[in-house]
Each structure stands twice: as structure tokens, then as C-alpha cells.
């Protein structure tokens, strides 16, 4: 009887977590529909001129939709990673979206510009210099983890944008375990989502990445706090 109850309790817990992850991921997908449609149009463009035309709305929509939506998703991931320590437990996704909108959209413009410059450099040097292309690809990996870390720092601390950027960059460059954990776990999820199970993208991909990234970040925070107390 106890074993049956335990199995039912386990199944209930699993189904509850699946619902949590999928609901937030679907909300995140809904907010990012404009950005997704623009990116799909760019991938299907037949000329460079079409890409450049679509670049203008992309520069606007990414900071105004993707970054606030992703910040809200990381805020929910923070709840899941540390449920017993949350100051405002079980807030809605929309609550976090509104709460962080101004900050995340402002920083989003900076990151969007950095990503566009990096993409342009990779595109240019891919036809001219293999070494420079590889260098910019490595910079892309660093920028990617920096971006993930920035989301984590934003939802975990109450800092000014300038201080958040500094803290995020410092953690990115000085924490190899967190760096590898974020990069490898995210790379696996993105590969599975893009190459094998595309349906994961609107249902689970974003929330799993946010959860794993914040878990790696929070383990580092606990370790740093422990070292400071000794």
C-alpha cells in the first residue's frame, strides 16, 4: 500500500514539474512569436538585401520581447531552484515580465548589437580567414554564456545594469565549472531541440535551459558565500 502511494506521489510530482516547465515555456514562446517569425523570414531570405531589411525589426523586437520574456523565464527558474528561500514564492510569469521589463529591454539592446556585430564578423571572415572565423566563434561561445549568466544575475540580485554586466562578465570569465556546465548543458538541449525534436522548443527547451543554467549559477553563488563565511 505504501509502495503504491509512493509511486502515485512520484508520478504526481513528475507531472507537476512537467506542467510547470511546459506552461512557462509556452508563455515564453508566445511572447517571442514576433521575433521567431522575423528569424524564420531571414533564414528563408533569398538575398542579402532582404536580410538587411528584416534586420531593422529584429533589432527592435529582440530587446523588447525576447529579453524581457527570457528574464521572466529565468526568474521562474530561480523559484524552482530555491523554492524554500524565495522572497516572493510562486509569482506569475507575467509578474516577472512586468517587473524586469525596463531593465531587461535596455540591456537587451546592448546584447543585440553585440550579437549582430559578432554575426557580421563571422559572416565576413568565413570567406576570408579561417583563424579569425574560429576566433569569433570562440567569442560567440563566451558571449552566449555571458548572456546566460546575465539573466541569472539579473533575477538573483538587485543591481544597476552597469553593475549587473560587470558581475556577469566577471563570473563568466573566472568560473570555468559554471561556464562549462552552462555551455555543455545548453548545447545538448539546443542540439536535441533543433536537430532531433523540434517540438521541444515551444514546450520545454527554454525552461530546461533556464533551470540548468540557474542551477549552475546558484551552486557557484552558494560556494562563494560559503568561502566568504570561512
Report on this model:
With 230 residues, the protein is an all-alpha fold. It has one domain. It has nine helices and no strands. Helix 5 packs antiparallel against helix 6 and helix 8 runs antiparallel to helix 9. The longest helix is centred in the N-terminal third of the chain and has 34 residues. The radius of gyration is 19 Å and the shape is globular. It starts with a helix and ends with a helix.
Features:
230 residues, 9 helices
Q: How many separate helices? A: 9
Tally of domains: 1
Considering DSSP H and I runs of 4 or more, what fraction of the residues is helical? over 70%
Distance N to C terminus: 47 Å
Radius of gyration using CA atoms only:
19 Å
Please provide the count of β strands. Answer: 0
What are the segments in which pLDDT stays under 50 over at least 5 consecutive residues? Answer: none
> What is the multimeric organization of the chains shown?
single chain
Largest sheet: none
Listing every helix as H and every strand as E from the N terminus to the C terminus, the arrangement reads HHHHHHHHH
Q: Which structural class best describes the helix and strand composition?
A: mainly alpha
- The mean pLDDT is 89
Amino acid at each position: 500500500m505504501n509502495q503504491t502511494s509512493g509511486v502515485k506521489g512520484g508520478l504526481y510530482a513528475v507531472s507537476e514539474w512537467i506542467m510547470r516547465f511546459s506552461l512557462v515555456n509556452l508563455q515564453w514562446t508566445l511572447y517571442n512569436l514576433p521575433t521567431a517569425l522575423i528569424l524564420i523570414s531571414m533564414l528563408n531570405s533569398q538575398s542579402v538585401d532582404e536580410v538587411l531589411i528584416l534586420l531593422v525589426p529584429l533589432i527592435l523586437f529582440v530587446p523588447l520581447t525576447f529579453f524581457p520574456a527570457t528574464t521572466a523565464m529565468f526568474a521562474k527558474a530561480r523559484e524552482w531552484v530555491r523554492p524554500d528561500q524565495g522572497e516572493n514564492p510562486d509569482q506569475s510569469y507575467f509578474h516577472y515580465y512586468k517587473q524586469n521589463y525596463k531593465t531587461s529591454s535596455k540591456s537587451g539592446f546592448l546584447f543585440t548589437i553585440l550579437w549582430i556585430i559578432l554575426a557580421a564578423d563571422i559572416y565576413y571572415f568565413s570567406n576570408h580567414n579561417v583563424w579569425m572565423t574560429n576566433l569569433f566563434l570562440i567569442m560567440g561561445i563566451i558571449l552566449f554564456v555571458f548572456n546566460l549568466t546575465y539573466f541569472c544575475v539579473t533575477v538573483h540580485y538587485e543591481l544597476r545594469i552597469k553593475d549587473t554586466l560587470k558581475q556577469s562578465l566577471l563570473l563568466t570569465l573566472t568560473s570555468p565549472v559554471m561556464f562549462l556546465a552552462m555551455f555543455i548543458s545548453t548545447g545538448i538541449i539546443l542540439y536535441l531541440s533543433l536537430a532531433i525534436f523540434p517540438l521541444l522548443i515551444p514546450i520545454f527547451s527554454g525552461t530546461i535551459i533556464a533551470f540548468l543554467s540557474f542551477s549552475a549559477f546558484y551552486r557557484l553563488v552558494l560556494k562563494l558565500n560559503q568561502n566568504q563565511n570561512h
